[in-house]
Amino acid sequence: MKKPLLPIVLSVTFVAVFSLQAFYPSPFPEDSLKELLAKSNFLNHQYPQEKIYLQFDRTSYWANDDIWFKAYLKDSPIPDCNLYVELLNSKGIVYQKKMYWAQNGLAYGDFQLEDTISSGIYQIRAYTNWMRNFDEQGFFRKDLVILNIQDKVIPGTEQSLSRKDIDIQFLPEGGTILANGYSKIAFKAT
Asked: 58 near 45, Cβ under 8 Å?
C-alpha cells in the first residue's frame, strides 16, 4: 500500500520555511535607531572623551638638549585646564614631570635634558585631570630616542675591527669614472 507523499512533503516544507524565518533578521525600527543615536549624542556631549596630541620638534635628542612640544586638546569639557606631561625612562619610571596651562585647547612646553641622562628610548606621556577619571589607554604616549656620547662603555663590550669587517665601496656619479677628467665620486664604508 502506497502512502501519499504530498502531506509529508508539505509538512516538511512548512517546518523548514518557519524555522528559516526565525533566523532572518528583522529590520531595525527607525524610531529606535533615532532614539539610540540621540542617547549616544547626549552621552558624548555630557561625558566627552578628551584627546591630546603633542607635536615635537624632533624624534631624537642629545643629552643637554631641550625637547620642545606643542600640545593640542580636543573635545575637552574644560577648555582651560592643567596639562601634565611626563618623561619616563625605559623601565617606566617617571624621570621628569611638569605641569603646563592649556588655554583654549593649546599648550606649549619643553623638557630640559641633563647632560648626565643615559642613552635609551624614553617615553612622553601626557594627560589632564579629566582623563585620569578614565582608563590610561586614553593618555597620549610617544617614544623618543635620547643619546648621550658620554655614556661609559661597559668593559668587555668593546670590539676591535679587523680588515675583514670593513667594506669600502667607491660609487662614481653616472656609473663610470672618466680618465683624465673630473668626476664626482661617493664612497660607502661599512
From this structure: no
